[in-house]
Here is the input.
Amino acid sequence: MTDVTPSALGPVGSAARLSAMEARLKKRHRSEVWFKAQGLMAITVAMVFLVVLVGRIVGQGYTTFQTHTLSMPVYLNPERIDASDLEGVNYDYIVAEATMKKLGVQDDDLGTTSGKVMDLISRDFGFQLLNQLKADKSLIGKTVTVTGPFKADADLYFKGQIKRSTAQEDRKLDDQQLDWLDQMKKDGSVKSGFNFAFFTNSDSTEPEQAGVLGAVVGSAMMLLITALIAVPVGVMAAVYLEEFAAKNRWTDVIEVNINNLAAVPSIVYGLLGLALFINWLHVPRSSPLVGGLVLALMALPTVIIATRSALKAVPPSIREAALGVGASKTQTVFHHVLPLAMPGVMTGAILSLAHALGETAPLLMIGMVSFVPGVPEGFTGAATVLPVQVFIWENASERAFHERTAGAIIVLLVFMIVMNAAAVILRRRFERRW
Amino acid sequence: MPPASPDDSVSAPKIKTAAPRSYAPAASSEIKIHAKDVNVFYGDKQALFDVNIDIPAKSVTAFIGPSGCGKSTFLRCINRMNDTIPTAKVSGVIEIDGQDVNLKSVDPVVLRSRVGMVFQKPNPFPKTIFENVAYGPRIHGLATGKAELEAIVESSLKKAGLWNEVADRLHQPGTGLSGGQQQRLVIARAIAVGPEVILMDEPCSALDPIATARIEELIDELRSQFCIVIVTHSMAQAARVSQKTAFFHLGKLVESGSTEDMFTNPRDTRTQDYITGRFG
Here is the structure.
């Protein structure tokens, strides 16, 4: 009966009262410990996923950055080279001849051996010969030493990704080809090294010659367009809405719409860009310009929202101080409020740009999913970007492209880490106390 | 007729409070600010009711009253800081030297260069001490050259009694100063624009007693050059620094008069209750 009413705990300081409080205190501590444990579990799960993701990508992709090259003397047989038509020469066969000579094998009438040899050596050798001859025709009839990559399958054998233990009909290279590769490795003409070509070449149909340069440059150009449009427009819009616009039903409607736009699936922006920029304004499709415009539309709401919250966080005392000495509204905003909000604005802008950098879906809509074997020729030229390059390579059938897919993802992740680090550094630098 | 009893002398002034308007004491010479029937609304809520007051030039006028009584609201009407609150509506007349500040033709930017303001919490800009003081003159174009600007900064800091403490670190952040120094820096910033009136909204409420004493001393020094209006929660402060006091209660100006009269001989019981600490 007595323990029904609150006063049943007894008078202040009584043992019953204290023990009741103690029991309650235990419960309170228990719930705190439980909450902390839940937090730790959540973080652990997140970390495990991150480690698995990054580990898998790096595990698959690190071999991209390693490559094997072959150095061998090539005899520029004058019988096969027509000095007046250097472009028309069958350099691949000249290279194959040199390789066969090196391996000590003879071609048969059907060209089976030369065909098999050509499966091992990259066509890059042929291009090198053409370039050397173009520069100096007197090389005809002489022997030059050429260093170049293997074909991707041969490279994969050296990296241990094609194994001799696999049944011959299940692999791209037969036993004889593997013997030849072993022979070349033994005589010391094969060197393993860093795959610079991956960073100096653009996309190619030959996996060993495919690189990310075009995609990196394309991404950078597109991001430049996005930043030049989304950041100034977004910041100005946010400043107007936050500092100048009257707070009424219209601004409420605008605010709700901006928040909604931030949640619209990105592919919808691609459709909008297709209709607006390509079909109506005739911006060249597949160009960094149209990609940048579409991503700017997509990044705009995020930049506006981030800027508005940064502006809101500036203490009103600073506004009053400026207004109090007779600064106009505009002077108050641009001399004091915006500079103080800058760290938040910068962080928001860079994070939304990093998001735009990784965007693929809207770019597929505006025709960026195409084979572009070079660095984009200006902002209106055809271009590809890193995430789309990943998408294209992932769809390629050749095995060596899978390695490169992971390699391109690593490059993309590094690009993003650099941008996010820049956001942190800028935030620290611009941060001022008040 | 019985001789006037002490009771009569107390009750007699009470009749005066029925009069709609109380007059500034004859002691103050010239009227700087004249307010007539000032009403302020925040949305539907009325914050001030028919405030009528004359504020003398070259003296300190203190607004006292319990929290939420409208004294800060009235202060912010004088330099139109209430313009920044979208829901605020001000009616009535506030004249400075006979000119109505609420006229459309009066630019609040110009008004605020004539009427400086010091806030409750010291709010220096997160810039250097020099930049804090130079900002006002710079935006109003008061200095024609660097030397002139430096002269303005120096004289303002001297007037605010801060020069000796900061002369060797003008280019260090103003936010690095102590609370009391920051408040004097803010006063220097207000002085630098060359105002005629300085409004102070509880300038010492965030300061320790020593810093408060320093600011009060400064206010007393500045009185010879400016018309100062100070809102304060401290009756002692009002008694120490002001020549005229106005008591606000529930949005109404209950009583105003010379500080000495207000504290020794209040006419309204509410004033008496407040200054003797019975409420508020």
